[in-house]
Amino acid sequence: MKKFDLIIIGAGRASNLAVTASKMGKKVAIIEKSKFGGTCPNRGCVPSKLLIGYAHVARAIKESNRHFIDSTINKIDIEKIFEETNKYISKIDPSYKSRFNENVEIIYGTGKFVSNNIVSVNGEELTAPKIVIATGTKPIKAPHEKAWTSDDIFPLEGEIPKSITIVGSGFIACELANFFAAVGIQTTLLVRSQRILGNEDSDISAIFKEEFSKNVDILFDTSIDEIDYTNNQFDLTLINKDNNKTKHKSQALLYATGRESNTNSLDLQNTDIEVDERNYIKRDDFFETNAKGVYVVGDASGENMLQHAAAQEVNYLGKILLEGEKEPLKFKYMPHAVFTEPEIASVGITEQKAKEQNIEYVTSITPWLASAKAMSTRLKYPRTKFIIDPNTYEILGCHLIGPESSTMMHQILAVMHLDNDVRHLKEMLYIHPALSEAILPAAVGAVKAIESYKKDK
Ligand SMILES: Cc1cc2nc3c(=O)[nH]c(=O)nc-3n(C[C@H](O)[C@H](O)[C@H](O)COP(=O)(O)OP(=O)(O)OC[C@H]3O[C@@H](n4cnc5c(N)ncnc54)[C@H](O)[C@@H]3O)c2cc1C
Known about the structure:
Structural class: alpha/beta
Radius of gyration: 24 Å
CATH class of the largest domain: Alpha Beta
Shape: globular
Strand content: 15-25%
Number of strands: 23
Largest sheet: 5 strands, parallel
CATH architecture of the largest domain: 3-Layer(bba) Sandwich
Number of domains: 3
Distance between the termini: 69 Å
Bound molecules: flavin-adenine dinucleotide
């Protein structure tokens, strides 16, 4: 049996741990069943955001009338867009592997547990005192063999469809629909209920729904009843909430209806490792599973499902395993963004969660018009919404909708990272009239809301 200091199963973000540990002289085996780099650079965050760049330019030209500029797009070379995106993806696996030194054994295959501390791959058994599971998630399978999930378009091979139907209402469905519609592919988004981006604060998702519907054809309260595929085309029977059926043709069909755990591939029944009701691996505050010496990080734990969370966890596990760190990692907050048009960024609780959890709070929601740079976008919908603890001035939640929301959110994150007091955002000096200045009235509004809340109390 081969012996290592550390075995890593899944070479997404956890590749970084192999780099760090091997630099410290540890013998590491890293097992990957698909591509090194994992979801984010191969078929997730990065390629999807590369596409958003093209969508953004196309959308700006299409909407130039808002700025009294009459322009038309002559041609969008979608083949070239995918060629470039595929070229980027093709470099990931080799570039990730090039970061490993001679202490790392690279193994392609599916890692399975034989016991708590023995892993088998390609018929060979390996052991190590520390084993890290970082197996991420996979898309929920599409119900037809010709239908895609996001994995099938990164890289996109074969003919580019002229029409696409996307099923789903989460961020992946919306980001992909945003791209395909912007570059001129006839796009239909099928949403089962009336809510889209239903996990966002309801004020924000309501604005999103109104604005996004201007860019993408969305059929609400609609799902697919029957799928027929003939002559390289889907003939779909759609059904709405009143059981009315309609026919819909589409060259491509993409399901973005959620992701599921990869744990079935691990043969965990041979170990003491426990999973939760959704099949995600349970762990303690130090990422350790029920099996001593076996850890789980990233999406495989089912906790945050974001690349920046996986990255922090992997770095922190390195500190625990290699530097003897004794404090657990506690995320003070977990921001995320939806890179669509409109763009959304969010951190902390939504107003509906605050209500559900009976939390004492005040809100402030303001448009961005206080900033000339925001005004220059000639968009009326952008908003900042704060949810604040009226006793401590703590930002419990902040939700932005508008251009560059994901960038704008960072000034709020910086305050939250330090002593988390919304008054800093009211008192700090902003560059006038930068887009960031749009946060100021919301901070002023939040402090005023607290003062009147205290008066009325
Ligand atoms: C389309 C899309 C867009 C996204 N956009 C964003 C975004 O904008 N921002 C953001 O923060 N997050 C985004 N995400 C989520 C982000 O990609 C994940 O949170 C992140 O990649 C998780 O990293 P990980 O290392 O835990 O898992 P992964 O990167 O999924 O890596 C797990 C690896 O384990 C391998 N594996 C699984 N089982 C086994 C086994 N038994 N043996 C060997 N190998 C195995 C898999 O092949 C995979 O390579 C997006 C995801 C998708 C799908």
